[in-house]
Design brief:
With 303 residues, this protein is of the alpha/beta class. The protein has two domains: 93 residues, Leucine Dehydrogenase, chain A, domain 1 (Rossmann fold, 3-Layer(aba) Sandwich); 135 residues, NAD(P)-binding Rossmann-like Domain (Rossmann fold). 43% of the residues lie in helices and 15% in strands. The chain contains eleven helices and ten strands. Strands 5-4-6-7-10 form a five-stranded parallel sheet, sandwiched between helices. Helix 3 links the parallel strand 1 and strand 2. Helix 2 packs parallel to helix 11, helix 7 crosses helix 8 and helix 7 packs across helix 11. The chain is globular. The structure holds nicotinamide-adenine-dinucleotide.
Length: 303
């Protein structure tokens, strides 16, 4: 196999998914007499969050859905934010609600998430959706791990019986990732900051999902030959290549791509791997939410 075919092109897959979603969104509009709607709430001026919110808005509109943006100042009270969420819960034009995290320190994230109607919680962070995922009920699954599973199934077909190691146990990536892989009948190990002999644990895996936030931590000699490697990490590091201007940075994952790509059967790059999947899956969850709220049938597995 040439080096290129080992690379899982998340950008291309996300584009294809967005095209399928746009067709479904047009069909929804024709049947429901309105567009599906996604509301994004941003508190404060965090530059990275502003970029995410702008991109979400653009891609929502490009997919033929309505985008609603609510911006609150950094010193808004928690009660102000909860009032916006309640208003969106009650608005029939809003199918999905996303509160951009992180919130300012004076706000309780769990309380805010708990206020979102679980049937509009397209981020899948509400405890009701966490419970639905854990028990196999239909709900909403966090976008990044669902995107990872889509890439894995696209590459491998059935994941049944494969050994999977998820590195990281966060609520937004590691834990839901592990639940999804269990649902796909993998044998799942969740590794984290206290795991002993991490390299040995990873070496057993047919599927490695790295969601740590440590640049290039997973080395090629940790990877079982032929394994599929999904790199969720997004880390900005100084550029060290010759001729790079001082202060310039580049993005790297949690996996040392150069050495891992030599051994892996398939691997996601950073950027262009998992990253583009997150917003595409958010749009997927929103069009699913719209169909459910309108009582319209949708083959969710085809998306
Ligand atoms: P987090 O900080 O909440 O969790 C990191 C996890 O890594 C923790 O569970 C911790 O136990 C584990 N960990 C830390 N050090 C470790 C070590 N030395 N060995 C093994 N495990 C260790 O992070 P997160 O929100 O889950 O995000 C993880 C990474 O994924 C970050 O780089 C983040 O930027 C990225 N991310 C990308 C996307 C995307 O692609 N759209 C979305 C979410 C997160």
């Amino acid at each position: 196999m040439s080096a290129d075919t080992r690379i899982i092109d998340g950008k291309a897959f996300a584009e294809g998914l967005r095209t399928r979603i746009a067709a479904v969104a047009a069909d929804f509009e024709a049947k429901a007499g309105r567009k599906a709607g996604l509301a994004v709430v941003l508190v404060g001026e965090d530059p990275a969050s502003q970029v995410y919110v702008r991109n979400k808005g653009k891609q929502t509109v490009a997919a033929g859905m309505e985008s609603f943006e609510h911006k609150l100042p950094a010193d808004a009270s928690e009660a102000d934010l909860l009032a916006v969420v309640e208003q969106l819960n009650a608005d029939p034009a809003v199918d999905g609600i996303l509160v951009q995290l992180p919130l300012p320190a004076h706000m309780n994230e769990q309380k805010v998430i708990a206020t979102i109607n679980p049937d509009k919680d397209v981020d899948g962070f509400h405890v009701v959706n966490v419970g639905r995922l854990a028990t196999g009920l239909p709900g909403f699954v966090p976008c990044t791990p669902l995107g990872c599973v889509m890439l894995l199934k696209d590459r491998l077909g059935s994941l049944s019986g494969l050994d999977a190691v998820v590195i990281g146990r966060s609520n937004i990536v590691g834990k839901p990732m592990a639940q999804l892989l269990i649902a796909e009948s993998c044998t799942v190990t969740v590794a984290h900051s206290r795991t002993k002999d991490l390299a040995d644990v990873v070496r057993r895996a047919d599927i490695v999902v790295a969601a740590v936030g440590r640049p290039e931590m997973v080395k090629g000699d940790w990877i079982k030959p032929g394994a599929t490697v999904i790199d969720v990490g997004i880390n900005r590091v100084p550029r060290t290549d010759q001729g790079a201007e001082e202060g310039k940075t580049r993005l790297v994952g949690d996996v040392d791509f150069a050495s891992a790509a030599e051994v892996a059967g398939a691997i996601t790059p950073v950027p262009g791997g998992v990253g583009p999947m997150t917003i595409a899956v958010l749009l997927r969850n929103t069009i699913v939410a719209a169909h459910r709220s309108a009582g319209l049938a949708l083959d969710e597995s085809a998306l």
